[in-house]
Fold this protein.
Amino acid sequence: MKHFLTLLSHEIRMLLVNPSTYIAAMLFLFFMGFIFTNILESYSKVPQEISPANAFFQLFFIPVIFMVPLLTMKSLAEERRLGTIETLLTTPVTTAEVVLGKYCAAYFMYIALWATTSGFFYILYKFIGDTHFIDLGPLGGGYLFIAVSGLFFVALGVFASSLSRNQAVAGILALVVLVVVIFGPSSLATSSWLDRDILSPLKDAVEYTRVLSHRDDFTRGVIDTRQLLYYLSGTVLALIFSILGVEAKLLHA
């Protein structure tokens, strides 16, 4: 892995000099600012039982299912389409280094974009000067959830990019996979057919993978190691499949 840092710095540099990165960042901030403004507007009209931070992170899935595909769809698909990945792999680098370099660069951008939203709460505090609206528990737990779950979500995007030469197809595939991962378990958990005793192990497995439930736990300050294991193991598996996918495509090229 001695070339990993070189590849990572190159990928980050390419992101930072790309004008589309800043356009995407502006759109992201505009969209998240719009959500935050609507939350504050609703608080100004009717008292709410939860803090603004809690309400803010309840809508995390909206930017995730659009931002992650945009960040990852070019990572491997474009390299394969242009044939540059074959040239890159003729140098003394491994497929794992290439995949991890692109993954970490996309994750860096993912975290950087979310980190900018902390400015919303800083501005809120400066204007109102009341810590009642800045509940550090849900705020810290929410950002921790974003960081931990983002490991898995970005890895799924990279995996989708490894399956196609077309970045648009890779983006759509990543979006579909994210929707299934985020909303699928919650939909299954409400199914009556899972209430049968014989299916109790399956129901426990579905409950274990409920991303929306994990979000609620994190924002309440409940950090379950089983949930951390779910995201970390999912990240590792997605990256392994990405590496294998790239190598399989190269063998059949």
About this structure: The chain has a mean pLDDT of 84. The chain has 13 helices and no strands.
